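Changelog excerpt

This revision adds worked examples to the README so contributors can see how folded entries look when concatenated. The first example is reproduced verbatim below.
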Amino acid sequence: MANHFVSSYQKLPKKRCGILGATGAVGQRFILLLSEHPYLEISTIGASERSAGKSYAEAAQWRQSEPIPATVANMAVQECRPELFKGCDIIFSGLNTTKAQEVELAFAGFAVTGIVIPFAALQARFGRILEVSVVTLQALSGAGYPGVSSMDIIDNIVPYIESEESKIETEACKILGSLNPEKNQVMPQQMRVSAACNRVPVLDGHTACVSLRFATRPPPNVLAVEAALQSYISEAQTIGCYSAPAQAIVVHKDPTRPQPRLDRNMERGYAVSVGRVREDESGIFDIKFVALSHNIIIGAAGSSVLNCEAAILKGYC
C-alpha cells in the first residue's frame, strides 16, 4: 500500500460503490478490499434472485480466512438490476462470464494478468515481444464456487479449461495494444501467443511457464531481463494509487520459486512473482521464466480496484 500518499487520499471525496455478484469468490474479495478503503465505500451489494432480500451474512457462503466486515454483514442484498444501483458512483462486478453478458462487460481472463505485467516491463526496456508460448497451471478458485468436483481434481490435473486458451492468446495482445482515438477502439499488439491451460489442485494462485522471443537482435541476457523486471514501476505506482504495491514484480533467485502457497500473497496479492529466468538453450525462444499471480486479487478484484483508483486520480470519475 502506497502509505506515502495517505495525506492526499484524505482530501478525496468518498465514492459510493456497488458490487455485482457480491456473494461469489471475486465478490467476496471486493468486499474485503473495499471495506477499509479510504475513499471507496460499499453502498449497494447485488447477487442472484435467491439471495435478494437477505442480509449479506445470511446470503453469502463466506469462504475467506478473514471474517465478513461488520459494515457489510447486515447490509441487504439486492438483485443485479440497473435501477437498484442508481445511487452508486462506481460499480464493480464479480459476476461470472455467462451472467455478465446479460448485465455488463465481462472481466479480462484471470490468468492473462500474471503474464502481461512482466511482458509490459520487458517491452518497456527491450522493445516488442514477437512470439510467446505459455503453459498455465490454474487454481481452483478461478472456476468459481463450488467449482471443479473433488473427484476430478484430487490426485489429478485437468488439461482443459473451456475457452481459456483462446482468451489468453487474444487478450494478451489487446491489453498490450494501443488505443486508436479516431476509431475509439483498441488496436491489438502484433504478437503470436500459443497457450495451453491446465486446472491444478491449488486453491489460489495461477502459475504460468513462459517462453518468449524478442524482436530485438541480439536479445537481452538473463541479468538484463531480471533487472528490467525487478525495477519495473507500474502506472498505478507512479500516480499513487492507494492499493498499488510497493513492488509490482518480485524476482526470485531461488530456483524452486515462485510457489503458490508461498508467494501468491506477495504485496497483499497485488504483485506478480517471477522466477527461473533463464535463456532458452534450444534457440527456439530467447528467454524462459515462471510467473505467479493471485488470480482473485491482481487477476480480478484487485486489478478492478486499481483501475478505479487510477480513474479517480486522473479525474475520469
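The second example, added in the same revision:
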Amino acid sequence: MAPISKECDFLVIGGGSGGLACARRASGQWGAKTIAVESNRLGGTCVNVGCVPKKVTWNAAAIAETLHEAAAYGFNIKETSPFDFKTFKHKRDDYIKRLNGIYERNLEKDHVEYLHGRAHLLSKNEVEVVLDNGSKETIRAKRILLATGGHPNIPNTPGAELGITSDGFFDLETLPKRVALVGAGYIAVEMAGMFHHLGSETHLFIRHETFLRTFDPMIQETIVKEYERQGIHIHRNSSQSKIEKKDDQWMTIHYTDKTSPNGSTLDIDCLLWAIGRSPEVEDLGLDKAGVNQNQKGQIIADDYQNTNIENIYSLGDVCGKIELTPVAIAAGRQLANRLFGGPQYQNAKLDYTNIPSVVFAHPEVGSIGMTEQEARDKFGDGKVKIYKTDFTAMYYAMMPPEAKAPTAYKLVCAGEEEKVVGLHILGSGSAEMLQGFGVAVKMGARKRDFDSCVAIHPTSAEELVTLK
C-alpha cells in the first residue's frame, strides 16, 4: 500500500453543489481540516451541464417567445438576421467558466484544500487520488463524504451513440434544424421547449400518453396539450429500434408510435437521449470500503446521510433521494453541522418532505407536496378536498384565441382543517411564485390561511388565495 501523503478530518469526494456546500461549512464555519476532490469542473452537473446553463438557455427561448408575441401588442419587430446561437453559446460558456473560478476561490476562502483528480476508496479511512499529471496521493481521513453525482444514460438501441445527452446539449455549436428528444422527464420537456422556441423543428418521443408522469395529472394533461398547440410533435407510446447515419449531418431514427404502430422513420440532424441518469460510482471503490448500494447502483444513505459504514456518508444524486441541487446543498450543510458543529447539532438533518420543484417548460410548472392521488391514497377519498382553477392570464388578453397559453392551479387539502398537502401550478411566472407558496405549505398552512391573505391584483397568483 502506498504511504499516506495527507491526513484530514473530512474528505469530500465530489465537487458538485452538495459536496462543496458540505466541505465549506465543515471547514469555514466549524474549522474541520477538509480536503475536496473533483475530477471534472467544480460545480458539478448543475453549474456546468445542468440548472445554470439550462436556465440561461431557457431565458433565450423565453425572449424568442416574447418577440413572437409582441405583434399582438402592436410592436412591429423585424429580425435583420436569425438568432446567433453560436455567439450565445460561447457567451454562456464564458459565464460558466467564471462560476467555476468563483467556486474555487470560495474553497480557498473557507480553507478547503482542493485536489483535481479521480478518487478511489482503498478502505473505510483511506482514499487514493490520481491527479491530473498521473501522480497519486493517498489520503487518510477520519470521515469521508461521497457526493459524486450522476451521469446521463444512453440506451442499447443500435446506433444510439449517434445521439447526445443533456451533457452534449451544451456543446452544440449550431442550432439543429430538426431534433428528436427521447424521454418524458423534466430534462426532455425543458429541452424540447427550448429547442422549439429557438427555432428547431422539435419531436418528443415518449413511452406513454403523457410526460412528467410523476406530477399531478392536471399538470401532465395541460402541458402535453399546450406543447402540441405550440407545434411540438409528440410521439406517444413510442419506441426506437435503431438509428442510422445518413451523411455527415443527418441521421435516421426508426421508431413506432401511436399513429405508426407498424413503424416509421424520421430524418433528424440532432438526437438527444433524456432517459434517466445513473450514479457516478463506477470506479469509486465502494466494495473496498464495504459501502452498500441498491439495485440501481445508488449509494444507500438514511435521512442523516449515513451509509452502512460508520464514518462514510453520502448525499446528492449519487443517493437518488431527490435529485435537485438545493436538496444536495441543504443536506450537505446539515451534515457538516451534525458532524462538526457540536452537541446542539447532533440531530441535524434535512427534512425531505414538502420540497418544491419546478420544471422550466413553456409555460413553467411548479409543484410541492402530494399529488391528488397520493393524498387520496394516504388520507382516504372522504378526507381530501380539491380546489382548482384554469384560466387565461391577462398577459394573453391582446392575443387571438389560438395564441393563448393556459394557466392551471390546484390545491390538495386534507382533513377537517383542510391542511394544504399539495400545490400544483402551471403558467407564466410559476417558478418564482412557488418559492413563496412553498414556505406556506412547509409551515403547514390551511386553506383558510390562504383565504385570509388579501389578493394582489391583477396577478395570476391571486387565484391561489381566492379559490372556491
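Reviewer comment on example two: The chain has a mean pLDDT of 97. The chain has twelve helices and 20 strands.
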